[in-house]
Amino acid sequence: MKRILLVFLLLFCSAFYPQTKLISWNIANFGQSKSDQTVHYIANSLRGYDIIAVQEVVAGYGGVQAVAKLADELNRTGITWDYVISEPTSSSAYKTERYAFIWKTSELKQIGKAWLEKKYHLKIEREPYLGTFQYKGKQFTVVNFHAITKKMKPETEIKYFKFFPDEYPALNLIFAGDFNCPQSHTVFIPLRKMGYQSILVGQKTSLKQKIKKNKYLASEYDNMYYKTSKIKSINTGVIPFYKDFNSLNEARKISDHIPIWFEFSLN
Fold first, then answer.
1. Local structure of 198: helix, strand or coil
2. N or C: which end of the chain has fewer CB within 10 A?
3. Who contacts 48 (Cβ-Cβ below 8 Å, separation ≥6)?
4. DSSP 4-56
5. Buried residues in 106-129 as b, exposed as e (16+ CB within 10 A)
6. pLDDT tens, position by position, 186-242
């Protein structure tokens, strides 16, 4: 009887509180260096989610093709996916890259065009890529971001995110990506004061160079931040894909970061 009630409750919640799944992954150097077998593996890892935010797409030759190949692999699963790729970020002093969004067309509808945030492009080396999507009549906007490395002080870039809610008051923002900075850093305090919360706490997401004391993960870098008054968190997690490989070196050929995911409903 309890099991029947639980199933009924889950169905009720699904019907009245529609849920979607966002996954974010810094797929290191995502371009022509990724073999067909690697892209196939990545697609199988991501197929269970509704929308994918990708960081570190190669800006030059091979990056656009890699995203297209990934979308094609996802389409081979029997579900239709669409995708958009940013122009190269405007960084001149640092490594320019692209971002991408890939989503299930049966679940989500893109609203307008995705855009690189140009207002802070002189302050943020790889300016974030924003895309708005509609799910069951409600909209959210993903701020897809890859910060400069820790030694370059990513907090000097992240601090500008506190201005985004006022810049885009009509948008339901979710900051997602590789911040190269833990959620405990003081730079996130302004966002917290505005009602934003991280989906992960104390979860390391980057791979070590070598396994030490049977530990594979190095730093707490990847995360998502959402406004609790507008979004209800259903579940969160990571994909420890490195467990599928015999060595850390093999796993790092896929990426030096693990994917992070967020299942949520829109208030």
1. strand
2. N
3. 21
4. HHHHHHHHHHHHHS-EEEEEEEEEEEESTTS-HHHHHHHHHHHTTSSEEEEEE
5. ebbebeeebebbeeeeeebbbbbb
6. 999 999 999 999 999 999 999 999 998 899 999 999 999 999 999 999 999 999 999
In this structure, the strands spanning 207-212 and 215-217 are antiparallel
Classify strands 173-178 and 138-146 as parallel, antiparallel or unpaired.
parallel
- Across the chain, which distance is largest between two alpha carbons, in Å? 63
Q: What whole-number distance in Å separates Cα of residue 233 and Cα of residue 1?
A: 28
The torsion of the CA quartet 237, 64, 106, 4, rounded to 10 degrees, works out to: -20
CA atoms within a 13 Å half-sphere pointing along the CA-CB vector of 265: 10
Phi, psi dihedrals of residue 76, rounded to the nearest 5°: -70, -10
Cα 109 to Cα 80: distance, rounded to the nearest angstrom: 12
At 93, the pLDDT band (50, 70, 90 cuts) reads low
Give pTM, 2 decimals: 0.93
| DSSP reduced 3-state for 241 | helix
Return all residues near 132 (Cβ < 8 A) that are at least 6 apart.
110, 111, 112, 114, 139, 140, 141, 171
Give which of 25, 47, 64 is closest to 178, Cα–Cα: 25
Residue position matching structure tokens 């990545």 = 42
Residue type, 254: I
Q: Name, in order, each residue with C-beta under 8 angstroms of 234's C-beta and a sequence gap of 6 or more.
A: 19, 263, 264, 265
Q: Nearest CA to 100 among 167, 162, 23?
A: 23
Reported as a single tens digit per residue, the pLDDT across 19-44 is 999 999 999 999 999 999 999 999 99
